[in-house]
Amino acid sequence: MPAAACQIRILFCAPLNLGPGKIRLLEAIREAGSIAGAARALHISYRRAWLMADALNKVFPQPLIDTAAGGVRGGGARLSERGEAVLRCYRQMETKAAQAVSSEVEAMLALAR
Questions:
Q1: Residue 54 pLDDT more than 90?
Q2: Most exposed among 17, 38, 43, 57, judged by the fewest C-beta atoms under 10 Å?
Q3: Angle, nearest 10°, between helix axes 81-100 and 102-112?
Q4: Domain boundaries of the chain, sorted by first residue
C-alpha cells in the first residue's frame, strides 16, 4: 500500500452517496458471487451488506446488483451491466483525482514528516 492514497466520495442529492465502502461492496459481490460472501470478505454483517446493496439498487434507475433467491441450487448475486459501469466509472474518477492531486499529496507527506 502506498504511503498515501486518494479516496473519492461522491455526494449526489440524497439519498445517493457513493464512496469507498459501497464500491468495495460491489467489488466483493463481483468476487464472491453473493451478498453473504461479500459480507464475510469485508468483515461486515450480512444485514449491513444487504442494506447497502438494497440502497444502491433503489437509488439507481436500474439495479446495480442482480440477485437470485436461495433454494436447492443456492442463491447468489452478481453485478448488472450498470453495476459494472458504475464501478468502472468510479475507479476512473479515483485514478484521475489521484493524478490531479499527486503533487499536493507529496507536499502534505513532506509536512507530516
A1: yes
A2: 43
A3: 60
A4: 10-112
Model pLDDT, residue 44: 98
**Residues 18, 21, 25, 31, CA torsion sign:** positive
Whether 68 and 76 have beta carbons less than 8 Å apart is answered as yes
Question: Could you give the residue ranges of the DSSP H alpha helices within the chain?
Answer: 20-32, 35-42, 46-59, 81-100, 102-112
Q: How far apart are CA 36 and CA 18, in angstroms?
A: 21
pTM, to two decimals: 0.85
Q: How many other CB atoms are there within 10 angstroms of residue 83's CB atom?
A: 23
Contacts of 67 (CB under 8 A, 6+ apart): 35, 53, 75, 76, 77
How crowded is the C-beta side of 66, counted as CA atoms within 13 Å? 6
Residues 6+ apart with CB under 8 A from 76: 33, 34, 67, 68
What kind of architecture, by CATH, is found in domain 10-112?
Orthogonal Bundle (1.10)
| Band of pLDDT at residue 15, cut at 50, 70 and 90 | confident
